[in-house]
Amino acid sequence: MRAAVVGIGVISKSHIVALRELGEEIVALCDTDVEKAEAAREAYGLDCPIYRDYLTMLDEIKPDTVHICTPHHLHADMVVEALSRNIHALCEKPLCIRKEDISRILEAEKASQARLGVVHQNRYNGANLFVKRLLAEHPIKCAHGEVVWRRDGEYYRSADWRGRWETEGGGVMINQALHTLDLLQWFAGFPDYLSASVSLLRRGEDIEVEDTAVAFFEGNIPFDIFATVASDSSYSVCIRINTEDGLRLTVLPHMVVTENEVLFSEEPRPTVNKASYGNGHRPLFEDFYSAIRDNRPFDLNGEEASRVVRLILGMYESGGKRIEI
Ligand SMILES: NC(=O)c1ccc[n+]([C@@H]2O[C@H](COP(=O)([O-])OP(=O)(O)OC[C@H]3O[C@@H](n4cnc5c(N)ncnc54)[C@H](O)[C@@H]3O)[C@@H](O)[C@H]2O)c1
Predict the structure, then answer these.
(1) Which residue's C-alpha comes closest to atom 8 of ligand 1?
(2) What does pTM read for this prediction?
């Protein structure tokens, strides 16, 4: 298929490399910083035009798909503009950062002949797929997730949209811990209530959004999360799950263990980008493109990806109180 990529920053590498490996054709790159796009075109040996304005690119090139790799506040408009032109959109997480954008996107998706896919690539990791299958046989009782990372001033200064409510839409939750919260609600189901507290504890010199968050979710299956980017180091993301029949699982990026047994393990493969992004982009894209070709539904659509956004926006609204979602 003829694919265009908009936003040629850090994550675009995962998109461009995977598209090439999958044999899809990259027909255009777009970035307001044209030099970045030119550097990528050269680095990946691409032969395609470069645009500064994504609407001009969509109208002139008419790609089959557009990969949206821009800062958070631009996702909603870019998705809606692509879908309204019946161009399939594959958007980086988060789907959007404002409540009102969720309905706008879902309406555009419904009205379009094109598909929307959202990049929650960790759902394609071996360990997480193993757990999803295991829980069909061993019903989940409760779960806990932890993201304890270090993000310093250099990281936040690397792009001016980072660390600001207007453009990032939040901090550790909407950016780094979104994947883990998405997995928790994928395993445990969508909750009815939440109580959350978010704080800016240690990175106040660099950012205005939260660097630390804790939340409890109540529904059929209770779960909770602790997330921070204010730690002095980064640790492996971890999800713990207790099942109704007494299994006590620890889920790590490449391993699932009980207290005395390894249930799943895989050799970590080299990643094309930062190790924390994992290897899920390529299988997610493969699934998305084959869903289009086979005319079958793609699971990680707007509705599915809006769930974790609704939970995170609820966390920001909660202010320590228990609220209905
Ligand atoms: N799935 C993952 O694990 C993962 C990992 C990292 C980043 N991301 C997501 O990818 C997105 C981009 O993150 P990043 O780290 O690559 O950011 P980045 O700042 O490195 O790249 C963003 C690029 O978008 C360009 N841009 C800004 N406004 C534009 C516009 N109007 N039109 C065209 N280009 C524009 C910028 O010039 C920049 O090159 C974010 O949504 C982020 O959350 C996802």
Answers:
(1) 11
(2) 0.97
